[in-house]
C-alpha cells in the first residue's frame, strides 16, 4: 500500500508539474494571442488611416482635374475668340490694302497684338492641358492603389 501510495503520489506530482507546464504554455499562448490582436488592430487602424488619406488625395486630385478641365474649356473659348479677332484683323488688313482704311500701321499693330494674344493663349492652353493630363495620370495611380488595397484586404480576410 505504501509503495502504491508513493507511486500514486509520484504520478500526482508528475501530473501537477505537467499541468503547471500546460498552464504556463496556455498563459504564453494567451499573451501571444493578445499581442497579435493588438498588432492586428493597429495594422487595421493604420490601413484605415492610409485609405482615408488616399481618399482625401483622390478628392483633391478630382478637384484639381475639374479645375483644370474648366480652365482648359475657358482657354479654348478664349482661343476661339482670339481666332475670330485674328480673322477680323486679317479682314481689316485686306480692307486697308484695298484703300478703304486709313493706315496700314494700325492694322499691322492690331494683327501683331492679336498674334501675341493668340500665342499667349496657346501657351497657357498647352500648360493647362498638360496639367489636366498629369491630374488624370495621378487619378489613375490612386485608383490602382485603391485596387491594390482592396486586394490586400481580401488576402487578409482569406488568411484569417
Automatic annotation (TrEMBL):
UniProt xrefs under InterPro entries: ENTR1
Record keywords: Coiled coil
Transmembrane segments: none
One Gene Ontology biological process: positive regulation of cilium assembly
A cellular component annotation (GO) from this entry: centrosome
Coiled-coil residue spans: 19-92
Highest taxon in the source lineage: Eukaryota
Family in the record: Belongs to the ENTR1 family.
Name listed for the protein in its UniProt record: Endosome-associated-trafficking regulator 1
Amino acid at each position: 500500500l505504501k509503495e502504491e501510495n508513493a507511486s500514486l503520489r509520484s504520478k500526482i506530482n508528475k501530473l501537477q508539474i505537467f499541468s503547471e507546464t500546460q498552464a504556463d504554455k496556455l498563459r504564453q499562448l494567451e499573451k501571444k494571442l493578445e499581442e497579435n490582436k493588438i498588432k492586428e488592430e493597429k495594422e487595421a487602424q493604420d490601413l484605415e488611416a492610409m485609405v482615408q488619406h488616399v481618399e482625401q488625395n483622390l478628392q483633391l486630385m478630382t478637384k484639381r482635374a475639374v479645375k483644370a478641365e474648366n480652365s482648359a474649356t475657358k482657354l479654348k473659348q478664349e482661343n476661339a475668340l482670339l481666332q475670330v479677332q485674328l480673322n477680323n484683323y486679317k479682314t481689316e488688313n485686306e480692307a486697308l490694302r484695298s484703300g478703304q482704311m486709313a493706315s496700314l500701321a494700325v492694322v499691322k499693330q492690331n494683327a501683331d497684338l492679336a498674334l501675341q494674344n493668340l500665342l499667349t493663349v496657346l501657351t497657357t492652353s498647352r500648360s493647362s492641358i498638360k496639367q489636366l493630363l498629369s491630374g488624370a495620370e495621378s487619378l489613375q495611380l490612386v485608383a490602382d492603389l485603391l485596387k491594390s488595397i482592396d486586394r490586400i484586404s481580401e488576402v487578409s480576410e482569406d488568411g484569417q
